């Protein structure tokens, strides 16, 4: 496995081109299209697959990180990391506005979507990093704000032989004009264990 490296913004390909993309210094500014989202069926009854993600390979034994500013104002504004196998098999994890507060959470989709989240009001407007580590038949999702401690967000299944891609994503299910500032993405070796030492 190669050592951890930053992935330049010109690498990878867009799943669903955003409204606008531009480089600002070392950051990537992405403006989401109106009513963009990733979701399949559960509770809401619709299928949406028009969110935006800049994807590169996510092989077994690797970990991918994405850092962005969690500066959201409208219901369901969201950004983070998307892992994708196909339109029916994907994971998104990040920060999303819900009930007037930012929440850290994940949606795991195998045919239909689920959703888990927890409020993180003190993360508003601050840099957040989402990390996905792929080992065996699972992906371990962690998150942290600035240089704070990692917190476990989700342990989700992902077939060992699945060809997956991963990278930064954003969606704006309720409005136009959401702009997300991504500050870094990187890839390196997978975490050695589910529970990291203190």
TrEMBL record:
Tree of life domain: Bacteria
SUPFAM superfamilies (alphabetical): Concanavalin A-like lectins/glucanases
InterPro entries, per database record: ConA-like_dom_sf (IPR013320), DUF1349 (IPR009784), UCP022704 (IPR015987)
Protein name per UniProt: DUF1349 domain-containing protein
Species in which this protein is naturally found: Kitasatospora aureofaciens
